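Entry type: protein chain
Record version: 2
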Amino acid sequence: MYFPLFWDPTMILIIIGLIISGAASMYVQSTYSKFSEVKSQRGYTASDVCRQILDASNLQNVRLEGIRGNLTDHYNAQENVLRLSDATRTSTSVAAIGVAAHEAGHALQDRDNYGPLRLRAALVPVTNFGQTAAFPILILGMFLGEGGDMLITIGILLFSLTLLFQLVTLPVEFDASKRAIRILEEQSLLTREEIPQAKKVLNAAALTYIAAAIASFLSVMRLFLIFGGRRRH
């Protein structure tokens, strides 16, 4: 039996997605490295800035912790904790402060019940299920021949949940960066010259989310091309 899920001419779409994602990742690493060399004139560490933003926003209850790795920074709404990576936490660079402020922006979204953030959290379990179940269902549908068309449709829909999650992620990340830049400016945590530099770091990071959405879209398009042709035949 021929399994087009694994290799056929439409694999070019997957390759294009991988190239786009790889290029975005390389760009964010390059941009972050560049502005990691630029030390903030205020002398604050990223951890200092993060705590100051949280406290000024009445989020004293949000714990600030460290986590191993590089650019592993994240805010966990369920645990009410914001974690800064080893590369970020004690750094006084413009890049690290921008990243820390971005994560604090997520905490502010949580405080404000920001709709897209709530929707993304709700999508996590169903997206995880979709990623796990999609391909077994698609393969089963292929074994059943014409009788498996309904299963194939369900498999594609489950797989498409990843694209939906990526699309919902975009406004969440863009808004967190917007909040971060505004707060850094309003609280004078960076100088006027440093604000555009931090913005460049966050804009570069945003490209990785755009690239992930494009890659997901191309993957879904590939499935439609494969199984659309199957129905015609």
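Comment: Residues 11-232 form one domain.
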